[in-house]
Amino acid sequence: MRLGPTAEHLFMMRQGGQIARLAPEGDSSPKTLAFQAQMRIDHEAERRQVFGEAWRTLEKNFYDPDYHGTDWQAMREKYRPWALRASTSRDFRTVMNWMLGELNASHMGFYNDDRAETQNEQTGLLGTAIDPAPEEGVRIERVVPESPAARSTNRLRKGEVITAVDGRPVSEAPNFYALLTAKAGERVALTVQDEDGNARRVVLRAAEDLDQELYQEWVDERKRLTEEYSDGRLGYVHVEGMNWSSFERFEREITASGQGKKGLVVDVRYNGGGWTTDYLLTVLTVRQHAYTVPRGAAENLDEQQTQFRNNYPFGERLPFAAWTGHVAALANQNSYSNAEIFSHAFKSLGLGPLVGTPTFGAVISTGGRGLLSGSYVRVPYRGWYVRPTQKNMERGPARPDIIVENAPDAKATGEDRQLRRAVQALLQNIEQGRQPRPGLSEESPTAEPAPGRR
After folding, report:
1. Nearby residues of 190 by Cβ (< 8 Å), 6 or more positions away
2. Dist CA 124 CA 77 (whole Å)
3. FRET label pair with 417: which of 26, 48, 97, 275, CA 20 to 30 Å apart?
4. CA atoms within 13 A on the CB side of 167
5. Which CATH number describes the domain made up of 128-207?
């Protein structure tokens, strides 16, 4: 805060960079002042600085002091001239990422803003799969549940033909989706014709994306297939990500999907990672150390108490939910990072059969550093190793006990071979009387190896 040159006002800098003035007498409310400022940037000098900051950040913090066998000094000499000759921010970013790529490590990247102005239009999505209907429009082949097309009012139906969008005939458009350009979040009027040729008008609000709707449709189909493959004996839970919202959903699902079931399939396929592996393991590795018998459950405790060996008030005693029954896990090549740590742990701890394909092999703890110009570089700073095998999880995928590939046409045929095999392995464990957890039984203090384990 300082006094103005004529001593009529006090000038101050507010939070967020706002300039304001205040009259010492009279009105005591500060008045915000508009201002403009220009800055001249030497982009070549700025890039020299950013390149050096990024290279030094990796030199001092990369988790492997041998840089995965790469001569990091030589990489600076190789890529610095190319980076400094880049004519655009986008080219500079590309060359920087080429240099980082020489380390052949995951959880890395260089990010900056592009000074170029680009158009950003979103196509509105209805939630329908369509096929061309020559001279008419497009025929609806499928409606995604919970999408705009599946709303209780103004619902679209399989077999109907969309003939116009906002009055524009579909048959005259070069592409149906061109009629939905810039319609995301907007109301769209459709002219729809049923199989008898009757036309009606449907008004929908097009969606920006259908990620969650398509995901939930996929999960619901896995649940149905699990019921089918196991004759209703097993439950199914998919863990979308290793984050808190997914963990809370996992807690709810093991009760909702596992209630009354003999076992549970936990699926981390297509899971991009996060940090909650140990929370999931806490739920799955609870060991029952006692059993309880409430008043009224038995007429003679001495004679009947052994009937309650599986009874324990987990719901009121534990900080998290608990699953103490039989379990199998699914992983694939699209299981990343913390989902891979979970897969390694599930196998190492002998919790049950791990089924699917080897995971991606991308496990490093990552951080990052902001650089001059607002750019940013990610830095893997901590390696992860499997305790029993002493193998690095980075470029060392979790290999399932039972390796099964899903066919390319799995979605079209409605078949999930990996899930079917996991169900078979889990039912086999149950039917053979194997303990759901190592160490739970006095008669069997160690777990038997899962089917196919080497």
Report:
1. 126, 156, 162, 164, 165, 201, 202, 203, 204
2. 47
3. 275
4. 0
5. 2.30.42.10
Q: What count of other Cβ atoms lies within 10 Å of the Cβ of residue 38?
A: 4
Q: Which amino acid is at 161?
A: V
Amino acid at 372: L
Q: How far apart, in Å, do the first and last CA atoms of the chain sit? A: 73
Task: Give the integer Cα–Cα distance in Å for 257 and 235.
Answer: 5
Closest to 239 in 3D by CA, of 283, 285, 287: 283
- The C-alpha atoms of residue 384 and residue 350 are separated, in whole angstroms, by 19
pTM of the model: 0.84
Q: How are strands ordered across the β-sheet holding 19-22?
A: 2-3, 10-13, 19-22, 31-33
Domain ranges of the chain: 2-33, 43-111, 128-207, 212-286+322-361+397-431
Residue with tokens 């777990």: 447
Which tokens in the block code for residue 42? 């030497």
Reported for 79-82, long-range contacts at CB under 8 A and 24+ positions apart, including other chains, are: 80/51, 80/55
Residues with Cβ within 8 Å of 15's Cβ and at least 6 positions away in sequence, in order, are none
Burial class (CB in 10 A: 0-12, 13-18, 19+), 245: exposed
Per-residue confidence of the chain (454 residues) as pLDDT tens digits?
A: 888 888 888 899 988 888 999 887 776 788 899 988 898 989 899 999 999 999 999 999 999 999 999 999 999 999 999 999 998 999 999 999 999 999 999 999 999 988 777 777 899 999 999 999 878 899 999 999 999 999 878 899 999 999 999 999 999 998 999 999 999 999 999 999 998 889 999 999 999 999 999 999 999 999 999 999 999 999 999 999 999 999 999 999 998 999 899 999 999 999 999 999 999 999 999 888 899 999 999 999 999 999 998 888 887 778 888 898 999 999 999 999 999 999 999 999 999 999 999 999 999 999 999 999 899 999 999 999 999 999 999 999 999 999 999 999 998 899 999 999 999 999 999 998 776 665 433 333 333 333 443 3
Q: Which CATH architecture has domain 43-111?
A: 2-Layer Sandwich (3.30)
Q: Are 386 and 393 in contact (CB under 8 A)?
A: yes
Amino acid at the residue 322: A
Q: How many CB atoms are located within 10 Å of the residue 33 CB?
A: 11
Distance between CA atoms of 49 and 180, rounded to whole angstroms?
A: 45
Fold of 212-286+322-361+397-431: 2-enoyl-CoA Hydratase; Chain A, domain 1 (3.90.226)
